[in-house]
Design goal:
This protein is α+β, with helices and mostly antiparallel strands. The chain contains three helices and six strands; from the N terminus they run αββαβββαβ.
């Protein structure tokens, strides 16, 4: 049989381990996922990641791979937010990017940025994803 003093000692040893594990788990959850959008201005190809990785570097690398164009660059990334890209309706290479707390905000900001780049030309949202 285990006596009460032994149980108390074991409990004192386990509590810091359990509390530390709970804190680590909550930090991982709070950190969340990172989304990134890569874009090729020469081809108009878009690559992205969402809800897959938890670091900026991983998100950027994956988005670039998925874009698959030699001139691809990551134009937008965010953690625990929406990211969007809007592209000019009539031409390859003109785009606007944004991140925001809501999908609507991200899309509207990306459209405004695209329209600035397109000098008032028509733009459309090509992609909007949450990290």
């Amino acid at each position: 049989m285990i006596d009460s003093q032994r149980i108390a000692k074991m409990t004192l040893l386990l509590v810091p381990i359990l509390v530390g594990s709970a804190i680590a788990a909550s930090r991982a959850t709070a950190q969340g996922y990172v989304a990134a959008i890569a874009y090729s201005q020469s081809t108009g190809k878009v690559g992205h990641t969402a809800r897959e990785v938890q670091t900026e570097q991983q998100a950027k690398r994956l988005a670039m791979q998925r874009c698959g164009a030699p001139d691809a660059k990551v134009f937008m990334w965010a953690q625990n937010e929406w990211v969007a890209i809007a592209v000019a309706a009539g031409g390859v290479g003109t785009a606007g990017f944004a991140h925001a707390r809501s999908a609507d905000q991200a899309q509207q900001q990306a459209l405004r940025e695209c329209q600035k780049q397109a000098k008032g030309g028509a733009c459309r949202v090509a992609l909007c994803v949450h990290s």
